[in-house]
Design goal:
- The protein has 249 residues and is α+β, with helices and mostly antiparallel strands.
- The protein folds into 2 domains: 134 residues; 94 residues, no CATH class.
- The protein has 5 helices and 13 strands.
- The longest helix is centred in the last third of the chain and has 20 residues.
- The C terminus is likely disordered.
Length: 249
């Protein structure tokens, strides 16, 4: 199972509704079948952007590969030459050029800085989408360059707004995925592992309900926390009651 499926499995078992079967049909929806009748699909609720080509892309699809390559590039410069190590941080916006275009530009920047370091902290705009910060470390480290931090300027924002925006995208995606299989079971749930809000307080939950207006054909849409999957929040209309599943922490 994927991590989000493991979390959902813990939640579903906690409900005590009967046997929880993983992938009743391998590699086909649903992800779980509860008591032989309730089909459950699981997905991460994460932040997404729409690319120039109109496709939906999760923010981490850009950030994770770039961050790993950036850190490897820093390490490749070896030990400091003049007894000073530097923290190197970045911030970027999309669209970010592909790595094969970025690498030689960054390599040139780091090589130049290695030969002619700044007198103190400095920000350098590499291109319109990317800015690099050099900050001297207080201690000497085994390497000249140390990864300091990375900022994805397309991430963040008002939590409830981001959740609603991405819920619409993800509900539509999953609805299309399961459409050919809906006839197989009488009840369908959609469970999201919330990687945007993580742990919603009562005020955030109430605000989410007040603005929840996504049209869908799921019997239940449920948010679970990646920190405590036994605490769940069901997205229902304003006219109904919020349901808590499992044992809240």
């Amino acid at each position: 199972m994927k991590r989000e499926e493991e979390l959902a499995h813990r939640y579903l078992v906690s409900l005590g509704r009967g046997p929880v079967l993983y992938e009743p049909e391998p590699n086909l929806p649903p992800d779980f079948l509860v008591s032989g009748t309730t089909a459950v699909e699981v997905r991460r609720l994460n932040q997404n952007v729409i690319t120039d080509s109109g496709e939906r892309q999760a923010l981490e699809e850009t950030w994770i590969p770039f961050n790993m390559r950036f850190r490897r590039l820093l390490a490749s410069f070896g030990p400091p030459r003049e007894g000073v190590s530097w923290f190197v941080s970045y911030s970027f916006r999309r669209p970010l050029p592909p790595w094969h275009e970025l690498r030689p530009v960054l390599m040139q920047l780091l090589s130049t800085f290695q030969e002619q370091p700044a007198a103190g902290e400095i920000n350098i705009s590499v291109m319109k989408a990317l800015e690099i910060n050099f900050s001297p470390a207080s201690d000497v480290h085994p390497t000249l360059f140390l990864w300091g931090a990375g900022q994805d300027l397309d991430s963040g924002g008002f939590v409830v707004y981001e959740m609603l925006k991405n819920l619409r995208l993800c509900v539509d995606e999953k609805t299309l995925t399961v459409a050919p299989h809906r006839y197989k079971y009488p009840e369908w749930w959609l469970v999201f592992v919330d990687l945007i809000g993580w742990v919603l307080d009562s005020q955030d939950r109430q605000m989410l309900l007040e603005h929840w207006n996504v049209k869908h054909n799921w019997d239940k849409i449920i948010l679970i926390s990646p920190i405590n999957p036994l605490s769940a929040f069901e997205l229902v209309s304003k006219a109904t009651t919020v349901t808590l599943g499992g044992t809240p922490s």
